[in-house]
């Protein structure tokens, strides 16, 4: 064997040794990496939402975070768990859209989603039920007097849906939600206690109840006024005028004000 052949044999031998070492190392390291990529038994999985609204308190978020952690599991390689978590979030009723649930390290999850937008509370014998801007039931019911300050809707004709995320039906309730949206954009919104839809089916009429129990007869839902009825913009201007003059939309405190006619009457 000449010197060139000996050198080649040495390189081949060295290369084989490196391949064997690399194979052994890889065989050890992949399971080891997988073990390190899993949260330790009993370790809490941290869940963060990229766009959590200010009205969601830590107490509100906690059960949703627990739901994500439970469905996703601990393995960083378990894509099915992430899909389960995404499906569970959509079914919870809290979200308009859940774009992605992804892992951040071995013990953290990040959720890219859009929360539903609460707009009103619907009152029935079982409590005050949170509703979003699409008239969908949210998974939260409050005992009377414990809910945050949102416009209440009184007198809904249909019972609430059986599951969160479902639309609370009825033309009266849909009209009440449109009224609540309009109220929420006004500077005097805190003076409105409730929207009463009880007369909607018989008279197509909505009323606002102020915090001083004055009834403001609004008329038809905003944008659906009859030809002889005052448009919503004019009604709002009148309420702004009362606010400027008296500091309140119920003015000097009459028991009711009819906003639906050109000549505003109070009694």
The shape, in one word, is: elongated
Poorly predicted runs are 4-37
The overall strand count is: 12
Instruction: Please provide the ordered H/E string of secondary-structure elements.
Output: HEHHEEEEEEHEHEEHEE
Q: What fold name goes in the CATH topology slot of the largest domain?
A: Rossmann fold
Provide mean pLDDT, rounded: 84
**CATH 2nd-level architecture of the largest domain:** 3-Layer(aba) Sandwich
Total number of distinct structural domains: 2
SS summary, helix count? 6
Please state roughly what percent of the residues sit in beta strands, choosing from under 5%, 5-15%, 15-25%, 25-35%, 35-45% or over 45%: 15-25%
Give the helix/strand class: alpha/beta
* Main beta sheet strand tally, sense and closure: 9 strands, mixed
CATH class of the largest domain: Alpha Beta
Distance between the ends: 120 Å
Offer a quick outline of the entry.
The protein is of the alpha/beta class and 267 residues long. It has 6 helices and 12 strands.
Descriptive report:
This protein is of the alpha/beta class and 267 residues long. It has two domains: 46-115, Ubiquitin-like (UB roll) (Roll); 118-266, 3-Layer(aba) Sandwich (Rossmann fold). Helices cover 36% and strands 24% of the residues.
Helix and strand arrangement:
Layout: H1 3-36, E1 46-49, H2 58-72, H3 79-92, E2 95-103, E3 108-115, E4 118-124, E5 127-132, E6 137-142, E7 151-154, H4 171-184, E8 192-196, H5 200-203, E9 206-210, E10 215-219, H6 232-246, E11 256-258, E12 265-266
Parallel strand pairs: 1-3, 4-7, 7-8, 10-11
Antiparallel strand pairs: 2-3, 4-5, 5-6, 8-9, 9-10, 11-12
